Amino acid sequence: MALQVLLETINKLHTLHRSLLEISRLKTEHLKANDMDSLQKQLLAEKKHVQATAQLEQLRIKQTEIWAAAAGIPVPETVTELLETINDITAAKQLEAELIGLTQAVTELKTQEALNQQLLEQSMQFVQISLDMLAPSISSLNYGTPNQHEQRPQNRSLFDSKA
């Protein structure tokens, strides 16, 4: 029974990670379209999903500990150890399939977030270049006509003959 509850929790984690992946893809589209309002909404939704993921992960850890105590075995450190200790082959195959799906979702999510990070960095570089182009340089901050200090009356000599 405890194994079935653990399987349901892992299934929920998988679903939540798929949802996070969809949010990440939407963030990419909003970044490309420069739609900051929609991006902000997606970031808020992402924050809620991450909090729910953390809670589900804590629940999964507790359920694994409960299952291990009920089975009379030490708590498995890794998923591989968990799969090796399950006696029910059907449950082990279900759990393995769900864990593979979860791992794939996490991998895709990491790839998508790396793309979003690159897009953000490129956007920041573009903004910085634009600001640099608009900002006046120090030499243009001086008042007066250009080369004013270099101009001298040409027709006046050092020796004044009328004196």
What is the multimeric organization of the chains shown?
A: single chain
How many E strands? 0
Biggest beta sheet summary: none
Low-confidence stretches: none
Cα end-to-end separation: 118 Å
Helical stretch count?
4
- Which range does the strand content fall in? under 5%
Mean pLDDT: 86
Keywords:
163 residues, mainly alpha
In short:
The protein has four helices and no strands.
Describe this structure in words.
With 163 residues, the protein is mostly helical. 74% of the residues lie in helices and 0% in strands. It has four helices and no strands. α1 runs antiparallel to α2. The protein is rod-shaped.
Task: Write the SSE topology.
Blueprint: H1 2-33, H2 36-71, H3 79-85, H4 89-134
Helix pairs in contact: 1-2, 1-4
